[in-house]
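Reading a protein record of the kind used here takes only a little practice. The record below shows the convention in full.

——
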Amino acid sequence: MTHDTTHPSPRPGAPAAPAAPVRWGVLGTGAIAHRFMTGLRALPDAQVAAVGSRGAATAAEFARTWDIPRAHASYADLAADPGVDVVYVATPHSVHRDAAVLCLEAGRHVLCEKPLAVNAAQAEQMVQAARGAGRFLMEAMWTRFAPAMVRVRELVAEGAIGEVRMVSATIGGSVPYDPRSRLFDPALAGGALLDVGVYPVALAGEFLGEITGVEARATPAPTGVDAQVAVVLTGAGGALGLLGCSVQAHIPRRAAIVGTSGSIELADWYCPTGLVLHRAGAESEEMAFPHIANGFEYEAAEVQARLRAGELESPLMSWDESLRIARVLDEVRARVGVVYPGE
């Protein structure tokens, strides 16, 4: 049986009726910023007011591409722009902390790309900055807000697959080795774990509950960062997470949440458009949840809904949840011996 859901619920999703536009700024002009813009443009109540880059030329080019009225030649100028309500931080994660704190202390709300920071200590500094400034902060874990994942949480809560006993998730791609790139340079907090491994860690953590055990093995790149990692997490109730990530090989993006009486399978699970439910003794059920745009629209809509409600964090990606994920990532790196300069 197949269910097509073309109009997902308002939260998380596109608001049904436009309110006063939320004025966005985009900090960083790389590929992820362009993808975010595609999703953001699907929201009728979102207005992109400004972009900021490290140089005038890149800011101006991004502004021309997306018809953005103001282009700033520095992150500081974007943070100081009074016509911006919330900033999307799209930089490499090695500068997430500094960029986000700059914006928060300037009075801007912040949606920051995953991982929130290089380590839990930096993430805690970001949370403290948000708390001190009274500003919204959320890690841009788009997986959490996809309509298909909303349905997964509902099915698990309803007991559709019984008690969760295992979560498996893999993700990876083959990236040409370049010791100076953000993926392999230790000074840029390179490695598979922080780039893509944060996704399976976040997925497993959502369904395993409190993590009580972490085991990991890694294949190092020549620079010493992790080129691929295998992780086993143990939840407080004994459920296990079997996770893998790589920048050396194209690993199928497949995930499964397995319970005592069924399972849920997800393809392209880091932002899925459907799921397959297997109930014990019943035919499999396929459910489709196509995106309005490309999937980034749902996390942006969540930010806007929380801002309008006067809230500083999202219950689906709270400060405590981001800190919990950051601590698990720290523990995995400790297990495989990856330490970045300055840590």
About this structure: Residues 127 and 319 are 7 Å apart (CA to CA).
